[in-house]
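Sample entry (294 residues):
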Amino acid sequence: MTVTALNPTPASAQKAEAQVVPLPRPAKRPQRLAALGRIVAERIAPPVVVLLVLLLIWQLSFSGAASGLPAPTDVWEQSRELILDPFFVYGTQDIGLGWRVLTSLERVAYGFGLAAVVGVLVGAILGQSALMMRGFDPIFQVLRTVPPLAWLPISLAAFMDSGPSAIFVIFITAIWPIIINTAAGVRAIPQDYRNVAAVLRLNQIEFFWEIMVPSAAPYIFSGLRIGVGLSWLAIVAAEMLTGGVGIGFFIWDAWNSSRLTDIIVALVYIGVTGFVLDRLVGWLGHVVSRGTTE
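Predicted structure, serialized as tokens:
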């Protein structure tokens, strides 16, 4: 009987059979493009379409020769330099709207920053006592309804200077919603958190940073967002009367010179700046509160 020997498989062949061929990974670029397309369709396209429709209505409504207001094409033709070059400097008073906005923002930074610090501290103190809150709340409600320009004569008489007077108007306008919202947030802190602070024997400073600020952050930043909006409104109104190189005085000067197209461009600058300030404070609140505020 003949026995046939089996030849062993070479090592190289066994190694080739044992190799694992990786499967091709799905391309991520189409997914990213699809996500970008959804963002554009959901967030960017709607406001752009609405803006274009409003511009078309504006153009059709005021394109006649007898119209009292300029059409968008007139604004572009007469105020093109203000739109394309916001940072030109031709003289002490002849500067671009970008520099004027920055000048106004500097005053807002001083007034609103001071209002934020004082308002949060005072609101935190008042929120600890229901009796104190009942005593001060009617006064706050009365003072917060006073228009910003009504404070201007008082501030001019007190400071004898337009710069500090404008900052005071911003401060006194923005502080009330900050105080009221902060006090409401402190009063809304759950009792369990206060019990934990008592067990851990936290002092007042530790309680403020570890318990009060994280818990009351949604209320605090709601007041700050209202306050920064009021600050921007107040500085524009105050600069119309106090003068200087701010955006408010530019509007008043353009009105006296019958430059309506420049006023419209300035209003766009004011609106965009206010929108950015609101979103900036909202983003800061989102970071501080770890996503609990919108």
